[in-house]
Amino acid sequence: KAPPFTVVPMAASEELEIVLQLCVWCFAALSPIVALAWLVWSRCSLLSVLFALAVAAASTYPHPIRVCDPTRLSNPIRNMKAAAAFIRYFSFRMVVEDLDALTKLEGAKLFAGVPHGLWPVGVALLGYCWWFLPFGLIRAGTASIVLRLPVWRQVTLWNGGIPVDRHSLRRALMKGDNCLVAADGIAGMFAAQAHPRKEVFLLRRRRGLVRLALQTGVPIVPFVCFHNTTIVKPLADPWGLLRRASRLLGVSIILPAGRFLTPLPFRKPVTVCIGKALEAQLPVAEPSDELIDKVHAKLINELVGLYHRHRERCGFGGVELAVV
Length: 324
Prior knowledge:
Layout lengths: L11 H30 L4 H13 L17 H14 L3 E4 L2 H6 L5 E5 L6 H8 L9 E5 L9 H7 L3 E2 L2 H9 L3 E5 L5 H4 L7 E3 L6 H9 L3 E7 L6 E3 L5 H9 L5 E3 L13 E4 L14 H22 L10 E3 L1
């Protein structure tokens, strides 16, 4: 009932629920390190060994093949309880410029969006909240290391997530599943450091998604996430060491600065704007550089156009865009 593109009011108890959920996520992310440290510190006591074994088991269960059937993704506790709280916290909204044309597209679609941000909330909510979207199941591409973290792994796989590597995406697209990827990847959240007070799209040299779309013959659906980069500000080192380590490990290694200088993100109205799909090409096993450049330029133009068409209403009026 809140006005469009504003923050939805929440009671203190609702915000506390988000804080508690974030604590669970943070502990789950650190549990492998905690288990190893406790194992060493306690000199392999029975309790520490059992905890380490539980963490190891949770890092490998369930097997991704067993959760690929969309009919298994209807459990409301898995899909709705946690997501609904985050939808309210971030006042998540979606704008689709041509909904009729998009829903009439048959077959798989490759959703490619920017920016990643420190915490890609817009990308995650678009991918993991597919149960209230008109596109059906969307498999969100996730960094492989996330699929080795307890809780993160289970929630991601139960909601249709897949590794963000080329082979997993190709396999899903060839099966007819929609896929979702942050086009700028983890490197995108570091790119903004060189362009303060601007929104930054890291796209110029990132042509892998275009090549994949051409090889599989699926249309690319561009989208822009507003406030992905403002809910948490990164505190990174000026030498770029964390950036290089993050790209090497496939996960963000950075100090988040949110509310009260904690990892708790600010309450910002996250809005995902989805543009018109780029026309699908016939599958090409080895697309030429000229064809890739042509489609890549169209993708950049559409993403830039999306940003400028919606920045005023989404609270980014006067914020210039840098495409690097």
